[in-house]
Amino acid sequence: MKAFSPRAEMSDRAVQAWQILVGKAMNRQTVTYLGLSRLMYQKDAPGVLDKILGHIAYFCNANDLPPLTSIVVGKGRGTPGNDIPVDLSKIDAERERVYEHDWYDIYSPSRDELRAAYEAHVK
Fold first, then answer.
1. Which of 10, 42, 43, 46 has the largest count of CB atoms under 10 Å?
2. Rounded Cα distance, 102 and 109, in Å
3. pTM, entire model
4. Mean pLDDT of 13-30
5. What's the whole-number mean pLDDT along residues 11-38?
6. pLDDT at position 93, please?
């Protein structure tokens, strides 16, 4: 059985984050960056999630999906970070779109699909 190692590539970690976020979305929950890092790394891992979440954000944009990363929030502010491509003036509506979407009805993206979406954006 394969597990997510501490040295996993960002696209692998994006697959892991996708799984966590889908579970949270289906339960109408948000998660803090700190909480997500603890779920993924079993410790505080500040500053490592931006590119990982970017994979997911750009995949959602490219596939006309609600912005799944809009449910990841800063502890003190309750909104996504500046690097997450979501319109903060519409954050409540965007989260409702995330919560209403049937994430269990679609196949999870592969690491290659997540990587391709990210690379297409950063080029």
1. 10
2. 15
3. 0.92
4. 97
5. 96
6. 92
- Residues sharing a CB contact under 8 Å with residue 118, sequence separation 6 or more, in sequence order: 10, 11, 14, 51, 54, 55, 58, 59
63-118 pLDDT, tens digit each: 999 999 999 988 877 767 766 777 778 888 999 999 999 999 999 999 999 999 99
Return the residue matching tokens 């990363």: 69
Distance between terminal CA atoms of the chain? Answer: 34
Q: Report how far Cα 5 is from the mean position of its chain's Cα atoms.
A: 18
Residue matched to tokens 């803090």: 32
How many Cβ atoms from other residues are within 10 Å of residue 91's Cβ?
Answer: 17
Q: Which DSSP string do the residues of the chain spell out, in sequence order?
A: -----TT--HHHHHHHHHHHHHHHHHTT--EEHHHHHHHHHSS--TT-HHHHHHHHHHHHHHTT---GGGGEE-TTT-S--TTS---GGGHHHHHHHHHHS-GGGSPPPPHHHHHHHHHHHH-
Cα separation of 115 and 93, whole Å?
27
